[in-house]
Design brief:
Rossmann fold, binds coenzyme A, eight-stranded mixed beta sheet, N-(1-d-carboxylethyl)-l-norvaline Dehydrogenase, domain 2, 4 domains, 28 helices, 2-enoyl-CoA Hydratase, Chain A, domain 1, alpha/beta, six-stranded mixed beta sheet, about 725 residues
Length: about 725
């Protein structure tokens, strides 16, 4: 809705009211149209201010209404009537003016912003473009280069930057609405035509063709197959070369294509999935999300290796005081230097002082007495972690939470050595922990709702996207990853090269193919995991290792590479060749080709030509298949949680929604049919056998992803 008031002499005030972000729902648009028309008709009114309730101007079009039929007045004529009206209209921007909200403000004749306001056109992040004149008005206001950058990235700008760009006319010092009213009074008699952006000609850009070609090439490179950024460039290009009306027609046409695209649906799904992930209402009825989190003022971090350092940096940046512990002076000093440097670099970039006063580096566990929560980030070794956990119980207060940063170890086994099982949880951070946003919050059999709520809230304060997951080997992310890596390796055995598999995955949208990722993280990581799982041992022939272990197909290729000292980037050789150890550019290695040929000969495998389609299907569908098993086991609360884990922790392309969303988009019946076919061809790969939940969903008529949860019966086991 929109409230209309004439409480300021000749100035009418229109207030958008649609909590929480005053999104432009049908009701709000109706309210605006009616209020603007009333103001324009009322002779006593000589100027208008538009603002939003509760300190937020407008978060844009109502994304929830995108899936239903369009109702209410459309945005374009609504904004046009504001711009064309014969009374000055001032936008009073507090909080955010995003998407349609900013387009509304661009239709106003003036814009006043609160110093804390953020403005932007983020439609591209939802697979769309700003189609209420944004692609045509913004270049006419701030110039083509700046508009191109904002529209193709969807970046939010601060009020200060908006002022510099000319996006707003003034920053208010005090009450923004009052300032806008005062401003409106001062412009009552000014001519309006110069303020109507649709009447302006964009500033001439020398060499425009070259600029647009370069912009197009850049967005194609960056967007990894996402189509919206390309459409954004095309729309702005029209603004630079053709009259406004023609530009609006092109904007509408491009939007028509994007709006119904699978990518837009995937990106909008990802938007809500990300916001819902923290809400984990559990299938067994326990509503942990309504449990009040405990207060966390001071945190202990044990271990200052790569993970520990990243965790400390994230905590301190969130304003949380940290006691950082190492066991040896040399390691403590190295950790201290690294953490301090990271914080100083970050503070330097933001022009603020590094919050070093929040940090205590120490060798002494006794300093942990006052902490509310400890994150243990020592080496991934169960016995070592157990020792640390029992030591922690001796010094921490009885109500302190103890969390382990592990990528897959059994949280219950660790909890069992403590005197506080309900207060033990896992926090699976992803490297580098100060940059990667995902945290899997692992609850064990006895972890209390309060503990999960506290850890989730702490992660959120650290700027992380937290997903609560059950305790099983590998949790959600790594449990699925195992099958993805296995498929990729089987493809090598069958005839592919690492670069062929990676290219297919990168064309699908992954930032890096799986073999490049392997090289980056180190092949020794997987080797350790396989050893711990008992898949490699002294009884295995290292020269002619068997291709079946524990009753299923096993690919020994990664083990053979490790035997050659090819551990990836750090050794200058892995699946690829690097100019030197630590160098980043992966080059195809002829040695790997002959190594693979030799391997296939030795094992009597006749290589075949593999298509990109098969690469994607086997990798993506085996991920989803395990995802279905995870859902059936109750290890994740729903498909959205699985997808958020893959979007934020494993580089799954956002414009493809996530592995579960992708399966839904391919069609569950088609996924089932493909898995059945691949399983027939590879009967010794159990992970290709369609999961019972997938079969059940197909039998139920392939319901939409939002309804899967109601079909998952046995979800309560671990939750
Ligand atoms: N339409 C519908 N709902 C919206 C919305 C929109 N444009 N923008 C935000 N919401 C909802 C969120 O889903 C969330 O709902 P929930 O509380 O039921 O989960 C709520 O508003 C708060 O959003 P959240 O993102 O959790 O709050 P925040 O303070 O961190 O961020 C925004 C606020 C506005 C910056 C952020 O929500 C955002 O970027 N929204 C999208 C803006 C956009 O892309 N607009 C263009 C649409 S084409």
């Amino acid at each position: 809705m929109a409230r209309y008031a004439r409480a300021h002499g000749p100035v009418a005030l229109i207030t958008l009211t649609n909590p929480p972000v005053n999104a432009l729902s049908a009701a709000v648009r109706t309210g605006i149209v009616e209020s603007v028309s009333r103001a324009l008709q009322d002779d006593r009114v000589r100027a208008v201010v538009i603002c939003g309730e509760n300190g937020t101007f407008c978060g844009g079009a109502d994304i929830r209404q995108f899936s239903g039929p369009m109702s209410g007045p459309p945005l374009v004529p609504m904004i046009h009537s504001i711009e064309a009206g014969d009374k000055p209209v001032v936008a009073a921007i507090e909080g955010v003016a995003l998407g349609g909200g900013l387009e509304l403000a661009l239709g106003c004749h003036y814009r006043i912003a609160n110093p804390k306001a953020r403005l932007g056109l983020p439609e591209v992040t939802l697979g769309l473009l700003p189609a209420a004149g944004g692609t045509q008005r913004l270049p006419r206001l701030i110039g083509i280069t700046a508009a191109l950058e904002l529209i193709t990235t969807g970046r939010h700008v601060s009020a200060q930057e908006a002022l510099q760009l000319g996006l707003v006319d003034q920053i208010s010092d005090g009450n923004t609405v009052q300032a806008a009213v005062k401003f409106a009074l001062s412009v009552i008699d000014r001519p309006l035509n110069p303020r109507r952006l649709s009447l302006r000609t964009p500033a001439c850009l020398p060499d425009a063709e070259r600029v647009f070609d370069a912009a197009l090439a850049q967005v194609k490179r960056r967007s990894r197959g996402a189509v919206a950024p390309v459409a954004c460039v095309q729309a702005v290009r029209v603004a630079a070369t053709l009259p406004y009306e023609r530009g609006m027609a092109r904007e509408r046409e491009l939007m028509g294509t994007l709006f119904t695209s699978g990518q837009a649906r995937a990106l909008q799904y990802a938007f809500f999935a990300q916001r819902n992930a923290g809400k984990w209402s559990l299938p067994n009825g326990a509503r942990w999300n309504i449990t009040k989190p405990g207060e966390v003022r001071r945190v202990g971090v044990i271990g200052l290796g790569t993970m520990g350092r990243g965790i400390v940096v994230s905590l301190v940046k969130a304003g949380i005081s940290v006691v950082a512990i190492e066991t040896k002076p040399k390691e403590l000093e190295a950790g201290k230097i690294a953490v301090t440097a990271m914080l100083e670099r970050d503070a330097g970039r933001r022009g603020v002082a590094p919050p070093l006063h929040l940090l205590t580096f120490t060798l002494s566990f006794s300093q942990l007495r006052g902490v509310d929560l400890v994150i243990e980030a020592v080496f991934e070794d169960m016995e070592l972690k157990k020792r640390v956990f029992s030591d922690l119980c001796k010094v921490c207060t009885p109500d302190a939470l103890i969390c382990t940063n592990t990528s897959g170890l059994n949280v219950d086994e660790l909890a069992a050595v403590t005197d506080r099982r309900p207060l033990v949880a896992g926090m699976h951070f992803f490297a580098p922990a100060h940059i990667m946003r995902l945290v899997e919050v692992v609850f064990g059999a006895q972890t209390s709702p309060e503990s999960v709520a506290t850890v989730m809230a702490l992660g959120k304060r650290m700027g992380k996207v937290c997903v609560a997951v059950g305790n099983c080997p590998g949790f959600v992310g790594n449990r699925m990853l195992k099958h993805y890596i296995n498929q990729a390796c089987f493809l090598l055995e069958e005839g592919a090269t690492p670069e062929q598999v990676d290219q297919a995955l990168e064309e699908f949208g992954f930032a890096l193919g799986i073999f490049k990722v392997n090289d980056l993280s180190g092949l020794d990581v997987g080797l350790r995991v396989r050893k711990a799982a008992g898949l490699i041992g002294p009884d295995i022939d290292p020269v002619n290792p068997p291709r079946w272990r524990k009753g299923e197909r096993y690919c020994p290729l990664p083990d053979l590479l490790c035997q050659q000292g090819r551990f990836g980037q750090k050794t200058g050789r892995g699946w690829y060749l690097y100019d030197s150890p630590g160098a980043k550019e992966a080059k195809p290695d002829p040695e790997i080709r002959s190594f693979l040929e030799d391997y296939r000969r030795r094992y009597g495998i006749t290589p075949r030509r593999l298509t990109s389609q098969e690469v994607i299907e086997r990798c993506a569908l085996s991920l989803a298949n395990e995802g279905f098993r995870i859902l059936a086991d109750g290890v994740a609360a729903g498909p959205e949680d699985v997808d958020v884990i893959y979007l934020f922790g494993y580089g799954w392309p956002r414009h493809r929604g996530g592995p579960m969303f992708h399966a839904a988009q391919v069609g569950l019946a088609a996924v089932l049919e493909k898995l059945e076919r691949y399983h027939r061809l590879h009967p010794d790969v159990p992970s290709l056998q369609p999961s019972p939940l997938l079969r059940k969903l197909v039998a139920a008529g392939s319901p939409p992803i939002q309804q899967w949860k109601s079909h998952i019966k046995k979800l309560s086991s671990n939750l």
